[in-house]
Amino acid sequence: MEHSITDEINARRTFAIISHPDAGKTTITEKLLYFGGAIRDAGTVKGRKTGKYATSDWMEIEKQRGISVTSSVMQFDYAGKRINILDTPGHEDFSEDTYRTLMAVDAAVMMIDVARGVEPQTIKLFKVCRMRGIPIFTFINKMDRQGKEPLDLMEELEEVLGIESYAMNWPIGMGKEFLGIYDRFNNRIEQARVEGEDRFLALDEDGGLADTHPMMESSYYEQALEDIMLLNEAGNEFSEERVAKGELTPVFFGSALTNFGVQTFLETFLQFAPSPQSRLTTEEVAIDPQTEEFSGFIFKIQANMNPAHRDRIAFVRVVSGAFNRGMTVTVPRLSRSFKLTQTTQFLADDRETVNEAVAGDIIGLHDTGNYQIGDTVIGGKSSFSFAALPQFTPELFVRVTAKNVMKSKHFHKGILQLVQEGAIQYYRTLHTEEVLLGAVGQLQFEVFEHRMKNEYNVEVQMENIGSKVARWIHNEEDVKESMAGQRAMLVKDRYDKLVFLFENEFAMRWFHDRNPDIELYSLL
Ligand code: GDP
């Protein structure tokens, strides 16, 4: 049966999993792909990744460190929905790439380790999602291990992250005594370590087990009932509307490793996660996903999948309409059209040529150096640009030069391309024109150095100038160069905007006391 494009779009669910490293993101991703039939054995995602790109040089860094530097996209079908999971690097040196990936999703799943609770990186990633007002679903993982009290975790969510929560289910015991979850949403108990349909036990209208069962003797069961009563009386009410606005996070308990509660989570998530959402243009016009004309924006550029060809892949989040291979698209920034014959779609890391993708999907465009992060692509006659992707305030800076001055041309070309890709941020000093690079995570510098050598044949020298507090200026015209000094460097960014790089917060306050009229601001 042919599906209309409208139905196709409505069936899309595009999300990312955010977490602190080791919370279990890879493990749950594998389980989700397994349910979708995208992989035969749960537990092969990491291995594949390494094998697949063994030819790619700078991915060496990933292999050596056993971490994922770049995000990838995975697609699978489940229960009539087509699901796109955008992977985000979990390493603590995660870069702006991770943040930008969150601009391309319609919902986020926040994984939390039951023993560790809310961790620093969870907070950073959460904030980006919060800013966008997208729905956030919480999965509290590793219930097969001893962890914090569930009520304490709920309180932590509200206090540390400032988001209200609603427990969709509740654990009955934990660790070795983990008996299962009390599923408030589906009105049943799901037993741990019991397979098949037997694992579900019905509840009666008072909220207790409907039929006699040994679990009734357990103090953990008693405790869970007590907690549920407390939640019913004093907890938040479930509101689909508030979930959609990202004001209330539905919380699920489970264990990714033992595959407990994952399927129930997936099914409930699919019920409440939004279908593709509209996006605003620079003129604040909302482009509806059901608009016939194809449009999208580039949120990520990944280079050198194949070092021999030095190709890049520009990842496009499709915002509206449908994309067909061979289509001609326009990039308003360049006032140029491109016929797109080489496009790729991502299925559990296997690259396949895409024939049709609709709003909500991610496609990869083969790029020979034309595109840049944030570019809009349009399949029709319209001309507009999607609102700019946010730039992130870097915290780390280096001064960079080419080891061999004769290589200056390659040096500048390499920097330009890597900056366009969003791999690193570019700054320069005012008169001496020294090049500074800014990053969110240290690893970005390492990747930069490696790629300059391998792709542009330039060895660079990087001098660490440490962490800085970067601030842009609203009233640039009032800035005098004499305001700058040892503790407050004055530089320009790639758009020629003035930026102060303060040695630390203290130096910034000191500056502010002396120059109260200068209006400083930070980016995201
Ligand atoms: P990521 O860094 O967030 O991708 O985390 P991984 O998925 O790689 O998991 C980190 C570690 O936690 C691995 O050793 C996993 O086997 C383990 N792990 C993941 N989920 C669970 C779980 O539900 N229970 C237990 N006991 N361990 C888990």
Automatic annotation (TrEMBL):
GO process terms (BP): regulation of translational termination
Keyword Cytoplasm: yes
Matching CDD domains: RF3
Subcellular location: Cytoplasm
Keywords attached to this entry: Cytoplasm, GTP-binding, Nucleotide-binding, Protein biosynthesis
Binding residue positions for GTP: 19-26, 87-91, 141-144
Pfam families: EF-G_D2, GTP_EFTU, RF3_C
DNA repair found in the keyword field: no
Assigned protein family: Belongs to the TRAFAC class translation factor GTPase superfamily. Classic translation factor GTPase family. PrfC subfamily.
Protein purpose: Increases the formation of ribosomal termination complexes and stimulates activities of RF-1 and RF-2. It binds guanine nucleotides and has strong preference for UGA stop codons. It may interact directly with the ribosome. The stimulation of RF-1 and RF-2 is significantly reduced by GTP and GDP, but not by GMP.
Name assigned to this protein: Peptide chain release factor 3
Gene name of the encoded protein: prfC
